[in-house]
Amino acid sequence: MSRLDDLEAQSIYIFREAFNKIENIALLWSLGKDSNVMVWLAKKAFYGHVPFPVMHVDTEKKFKEMYEFRDRYADEWNLNFIREVCPPLEEMDDTLPPAARSAARKTVGLRDATKKHGFNGLFAGIRRDEEAIRAKERVFSPRGAEGKWDFKHQPPEFWDQYKTEFPEGTHIRIHPLLQWTELDIWNYTHREGIPIIPLYRSKNGLRYRSLGDEDITNPVKSDAYTIEEIIAELGSTKVSERSGRALDHETEDAFERLRAEGYL
Amino acid sequence: MNMQDNDIKAQSSARELLKVAIVGHVDHGKSTFVGRLFHDTDSLPEGKYESIVAMCEKRGVEFEYAFLMDSFQAERDQGITIDTSQIWFNTEQRDYTIIDAPGHKEFLKNMVTGAAQSDAALLMIDALEGVQEQSRRHGYLLNLLGVSQIAVVVNKMDLVDYSQARFDEIEAEYRAYLTSIGVNPTRFIPISAREGDNIVNPSDKLAWYKGLTVTEALDDFKILSADDDLPLRLPVQDVYKFDDRRIIAGTIVSGQLRIGDKITFSPSGKEAVVKNIEAWPRAYTDEEKQNLVLRAGQSVGITLTEQIFVERGDVISHVEQADADSDGALMAPHLGKEFTAKLFWLGETPFEVGKNYKMKLGTAEINVRVKQINHILDAENLGQSKGDQLLRNQLGEVVLTSRHPIVLDDYREFAKSGRFVLLEKFDIAGGGVINLDGYENTREALFAHQANITRVDHAVSLAERENYNGHKGGVLWLTGLSGAGKTTLAVSLERKLFRKGLQVYILDGDNLRHGLNNNLGFTDADRRENIRRASETAALMAQAGFVVIVSLISPFAEDREKAALTQGDGFYEIYVKADLETCESRDPKGLYKKARTGEISDFTGISSPYEAPENAALVIDTAKNSVEQGANLLLEFATERFHREFSADYSI
Ligand SMILES: Nc1nc2c(ncn2[C@@H]2O[C@H](COP(=O)(O)OP(=O)(O)O)[C@@H](O)[C@H]2O)c(=O)[nH]1
Ligand SMILES: [Mg+2]
Could you tell me which chain B residue has the CA closest to the CA of A252? Predict the structure, then answer.
């Protein structure tokens, strides 16, 4: 089996495991390249149906192109789509550095939405190669009350057996793409013909590698327009994927603290 | 960008990927090695080196390569790896996922998590400290986890003046240990992670060493082929009915599968033929189907030529064929109630003789009891001791039993289907591999009685009976909470249908418990058996031409589905709906009151769940309708469904 076939099979297995074992689950759709691959894989796993809600926790600060993409494909892909809005910045802890404070809106928005719908499981499209804290994640990752991540006591996970039992009041984050790399995502997007948001393509010598809120995400220098060119560019770059995300660079432990609170 | 560049990159998804775990005793330099490896192969992302310099300055420590992998603050502050981490890099030959594992005994579960995912491992030993407890335990665990390619790296050679004598001494000791547990290491390599000796390039200081450097040794590991050549094992993960297809989904653990294959399900022994292999975004063409072979590792979905009841946990294998060559491995898995296992225990409380655990074996979940502990293994000196307990992080050989026959494979033939995990409360607390030496396979004994039974053909056909009765036979399955009105509706409907001249009879749950089912209680297993008998009886009566009204709470969708499959056509699920509050206020038998006080346990709706039908043929809402209205709705439904035109082939 090819590498992409392997990854695909593994992700499908994870989707099916979660769908069978955990009641009330939803997929977090952040509209970026990873979560689009995730929706695609869910459709593969369930033969064209996505048998759970697909939720966008909206900061209302995404790029216009992202909203257009969302509205079009929520419909075209026949998704059971839910939109929840994050609380305003003023309600967030004002001792946080600016980007972290802005990110906290997402954490709180997600926590509230999870409670509101009573979700016990959430699919999230994070990957280990994105960031050193995420590299330590589990595929089935328990979250305590208030969505907190007890990263110093993670459950063992081996032989394709996952943590699917948990006490009431807690939930599980499920990470079907954990083992994928950025390059895998693009190779798969290319192979499968998965639609992409135009912002990933070079415009005036700049493109986005990772899409977040418009005000805290910066483009990188690039001439890559086609997916082939993007793939070629990634093969030779040493710039890290999230370098355009202000959030990751404020303090050494900024990301660890955010994730412990429940950030993706 | 030039052409050549393009060519290289186009292959990137076709490049091989090997996952390598770095294991060994705490502080022997694993994380440092990974940092150094990345530095020496120029794989660090831009700015990473500088940021590590800054982190070290802030803490007032010397430059620490380990900070690349040790990303938690606690890890950096304490200089110890807590959890496993992964990072990607590549040589000219292929891509690698490097999995750093913690070496501290306290975090063994994290080491297992990391190492179990790998194709090969580098086991690190500190040249100065020599072989330590975790060096041995990790060596043993790698073997249990199924990691068979191991290279041993003797690190910190700088601390022993790059002494060949010291290296030889460690190699001799550790090689003897590995050999004694049946592991054959690919090689031993002397290095200094801190100084970068022998990681990418050979070092002058180790001129006496003529073997491969670490990166060369990595490239020398083999990519192991999937288990395609073993007999088929496809554990059923789920059954989907999103549309008119009934798709059986799962991931092939070993072997191959094609359309038209004759397969059997264990432990039920049911057989079927693969009708189709499903796919999205488009179905396979007829031509593609001809050559389609599903292989180990693939996540698949199949349909069958006939409808049989299949559930999660069943294992699909091929039906034994005379000409099949399975190299001695069993074509269908062993069935038995007892087995021996090598086990590692990670639980908070001791693993003990007499305790029960939930076992996850493939997709099956089974309750097992610890019958005995044959011996406890001492990782320090490989000695064996006796005892009734395995403490956290201990290894041992144990015997587990279950009340029902379970589907077993020996791990020496079937590395993947021959292993399981045990749960303690909510968490995985141990892993084991199955050894079936000395146990009898009860497969044949279990199915022999079925094989000797043939069906008797009736001299009166169903069509004749139906013509005689003037209507079709079938089953109206009334499900709903206690007090929802099932019996009331059933009685009223029976009267109405009888008056119209139909052959009709009620099977009521309470009545059945007085006779046919009077040896059954209310455990999960007994409830299931209760429903199984009711559905078989209903199906028999329907075959005799009756309209059978079954009135049973039947709270689980799965049981009702089984009943539907037992009957086949002419089964109608009727949801008699009333909310819990309404039912509780009616409480005709005073049962809710008793359930609330705890006098009755496992009471549906109170202390046991009710799974409402999702696709009932008819829903009667008794909170909104009167009995008369409900019965009339049912009457209309039944009259229509069981109506039969007189057919001309009527003959006696
Ligand atoms: N002298 C010397 N020290 C080393 C070498 N490799 C690692 N160390 C030191 O050993 C300590 C433990 O290393 P670490 O990588 O955290 O060990 P781990 O627990 O196996 O991951 C650190 O202080 C390292 O700097 C080496 O080759 N030579
Ligand atoms: Mg370490």
Answer: B55
Question: Which residue puts its alpha carbon closest to atom 26 of ligand 1?
Answer: B156
- What pLDDT is attached to residue B453? 61
Distances (CA, A) of A106 to A109, A237, B376: 5, 30, 50
How many Å separate Cα A165 from the centre of its chain?
Answer: 23
Tens digits of residue pLDDT in A155-198:
999 999 999 999 988 999 999 999 999 999 999 999 999 999 99
What are the mean pLDDT values of chain A's consecutive 10-residue runs (264 residues total)?
Answer: 94 98 96 96 97 96 95 97 95 85 90 95 96 94 91 95 92 97 96 96 94 86 94 86 74 84 88
Residues 117-146 of chain B with CB under 8 A from chain A are 117, 145
Expressed in angstroms and rounded, the spacing between residue B64 Cα and the centre of ligand 1 is: 9
Q: Looking at the predicted structure, is the pLDDT value of residue B322 above 60?
A: no
Nearest to B46 by CA among A169, A107, A239: A239
Contact B121, B21 (CB under 8 A): yes
Residue B527, ligand 1, Cβ within 6 A = no
In a domain, A204, yes or no: no
Q: What is the CATH number of domain B14-220?
A: 3.40.50.300
> Where in chain B are the domains?
14-220, 234-318, 334-437, 462-642
Side chain identity at residue B416, one-letter code: K
* Phi, psi at B351, each rounded to 5°: -80, 125
Any CB–CB contact under 8 A between B87 and chain A? Answer: yes
Q: Which class does domain B462-642 fall in?
A: alpha beta
Please report the ipTM that was assigned to this predicted complex.
Answer: 0.95
Give the count of Cβ contacts less than 8 A between chain A and B. Answer: 169
A129: nearest CB among B5, B88, B299? B88
Please give, rounded to a whole number of angstroms, the shortest distance from the CA of A106 to a CA of chain B: 22
